[in-house]
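Name: MurR/RpiR family transcriptional regulator
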Amino acid sequence: MTLGALGVAERIQARRPQMSDAMAKIAALLVEHPTAPLEMSITELAAQAGTSAATVTRFCRLIGYSGYVPLRVGVAADVGRGDVHASWHADIGKSFDPDDTSSDVLHALLGSHTRAVQATASSVDLEQMDRIATAIATCRHLDIYGIGGSGLMADELQSRLYRIGLSAHAWTEVHAGLASAAIQDETCVALAISNTGRTTETIQMLGQANSSGAFSVALTNRPDSPLAAVAHEHVVAAAPEEYLQPDDLSAKHSQLFLLDLIYLLVAQQDFARTTTKLAASAMAVLPHRKSVRTRSRTQ
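Structure predicted for MurR/RpiR family transcriptional regulator:
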């Protein structure tokens, strides 16, 4: 097949049957992040894909470029010649069109979010979740790691577990997270959240906690991700690849669904402690909540 007239995505698709496993990882990265070569050096892209710079070079040659620089030129050309609708579909996804009615958007969005949660629920390993909940409920300390949007998920879980008496801390900055991970031990649990499972800082923090002896858990939507590889347990949050990957909110809803399940299973482990702590915290904030007043209507 002649590749000269094809864009980068088309070249990747055409040569996929000939790719090794390592090259397939690069292909998957470029399909998900088409502009990655414009933002990363060859070594950075190789690290992100979990392969080597030499493999990236071989990948470039396989799809018809003499090296990484010509690949970057090809990516830039694709970006430059893409029309408005192509850009929309690349960033937002094929499930939505700019001319859709608000009703169309609503129903497509509802379908996407519903499928994400249903797919997540259908694949839950309840024995695994019970193991994780027991480990968290009985640990000396829980570290939770997440960067960016996943950091918000980490903060949410930490806040809820802390309120029912668990010693937990959410780390969303790698230096502080690594320092904490280094002092964990076999009495601790470390949980890392990353949609793609390829966020370098999150991988580093969980890897350090694992090396320190903590029981490590990864929550991602990629079973074969580098983050999953460094964890004792891996929990999958399904995310339909229809729009705004890896930042779409359907992925966040899948994560929240699993984190909510973990929280409730942990809360069940010590019912007396949970209810006592919740009651105490509710009473503490009660004076800061306005009472609901009813007004009688004059007939």
